[in-house]
Every structure is written in structure tokens, then in C-alpha cells.
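Progress narrative, work stream C.
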Amino acid sequence: MHEVPAFGIEARRWTVVFHRRAENWFFAAIAMGEFKHVSAFAFIPELGIWTIYDVGFRRTRLIHLAETDHAKTILGNIVKGNCTVTVETGAGCLPLMRAGLFCTTAIKHLIGARSRALRPDRLFRHLVAQGGVVRDDGSREAADRRGSEPGCRAGAGTADAHR
């Protein structure tokens, strides 16, 4: 364990999870596109914890997990069948405020992304275009469902899901 500065510690790299399934039919319908929800997780080595950030219509969840096999199982279940993009947080030239607080805008705000995306699919394309590292656990399954190419491009990059 490292010494924690008085002002705290902020995660600098987030893994954004693009979920292919929504909580219910209504959320699936308004999301349109392949991805129905977006959340994020990060590892904070100074504290030895994982942080999960998940904004829904009902509430925002901020979950902290000690670095254990149980945490790796939970994170594995979150990414299973979904697509992830790992990005470094941005801090420069951000707008004075953000409109709305729902999953897509909340994740943009969390990672400091300058994007006009209001839906998960658009945020995914933006993050990949900005050099985000893609890992897709459900690309083959998604391609089978759609009968076309996966949402995540092959060769778009690789990520270590745990750091």
C-alpha cells in the first residue's frame, strides 16, 4: 500500500464497458444500436482497489472492491459478452458543464471525453477513434446474432482487462 496524498487519488485510466443488454425493454428501445448501456471501472493501485462507476436512470452506483479473486470474478462477469475500451482520462479544454446525467453523458464526464455522443454506440465509436484500446468479449456472439461483422473491429487493439 502506498501513501495517499491529502487531496486523494483519482483514477487516470478507465475501462469503459459497452453493454449489449439493457435492464429492460424500454431502455433497450431508447438506446437503439448494438450497445444499450455504458459503465466503467478502474484499478487504483495506491489503494489496491477496483472502482466501478455505473449510472442508471434510477440511481448511480459507485462500487469499490479490494483486489481479490472475487473482484476479478465480478469484473469478469461485467465484461462477459460486452465490449470494452480502455482510455486515459482527459483534462484539457472541457466544456464548462455537461447536459443531462444518464449513462453515456456520465461516462463522458467521468473520463473527460470531448464528444457529442448521447448514445452508447456513438461514444464507443468516438473512444475508438481517439485511440482507446478495444477488447470485445462478445464479438463472435454478437456477429452470430446480427449475421454481420462484430461491433468491435478486429485489430483495433488489445487491453489488459485488469490494469
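Work stream C, second folded protein:
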Amino acid sequence: MKTFSLGLLALATALAISPVALAQTYNFSYTSGGYSGSGWLVAGGGFSGGLNVASGDLVFNGEDFSLLANSTPGQAIYSPSGAFIIDNLLFPSAGASGGLLDNYGLLFVDAAQGVELNIWGNGIVNGYSLYKWVRGNYVIEDSGTFNITTPEYSDLSMLLLSALTLVGGFIFKTRHPGISLAF
């Protein structure tokens, strides 16, 4: 009975943390002749061959923006102003083929200032557009490049995580010697 309960507990834990464990953080940048921006995105859960971007931040020409999460992940929706149609999907496996973003793209907002910024793909290599909407007007209509990278984690942090896991397992096994940890 103890082995069954431990297995059930392990399964419940795996199911509960799986969305978090499957999420991946990406660093990104947008550049063109006159504009530049960079930030981070957290994406996970597959939709239409892409990953749903659930959160992120962007600093664009010195202004701070936050990703506006899609209320219906995987589906295209209107931005709050109605200026853009977005889906917040990222296609990291497309790589250099020009398809990191689809034609709906990502929506970043500065709600306090009433500003929306949309970055989307045009379906060609390094073909991306960025439009900025401020109180009823498109004030930037630009084309440039969009790149993503995955952040590297230090060996020290991975070593610390491994050590804590081993210590936790040792403490559990010493307090519960009769429970089999075999799966």
C-alpha cells in the first residue's frame, strides 16, 4: 500500500508541475535601421505547431513593455485597442527559416500610457514587422530582424540542484526506510 501511495503521489506531482516544467525561457531581440529592442519570453504548450507565449518583457528604444497574455491560447484575438490581431505564438524550431513568429505575432503593452506594440513575422527569412500604436495612431511602422536564444544555466546552479535532490532523497529514505522507491 505504501508503494502504491508513493507512486500515486509521484504521478500527481508530475502532472501538477508538468506545465511549469515544459515552459522554456527565451531571450529575444528586434533590430532594424532605426530601432532596437530586447527582452525575454516564457513559452510552453503547443498550439498549431508553435508554443504559447504566456509572459515576457520588452525594452524597446528605452521604453518598458509587458507581454499581454492571450486569453484564448492558440487562437487569434484582437488587441485591447483593436489595432492588432495577435496570437502570441512562437515557433523556435523554425530557426533561421524566417518563421519564428507567424503573421499575428506577439503583443506588448504599456497600459499606463495606452501603448501597444506588435511584432510579427512576414513569412520570409529575417522578415519581421513591428508596429507601435499610441492612442489611435500608428506611430512606428518598421521592418527588421527578430532573433531568439535560450539562456544558459551555470554549471554551479545545476550542481546545486542535483545536490539538493540527492540530499532530499537521502532524508526521505532515512525517515521512511520501509518504502520502496522503485518504479
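Residues 26-149 form one domain. No further action is required on this item.
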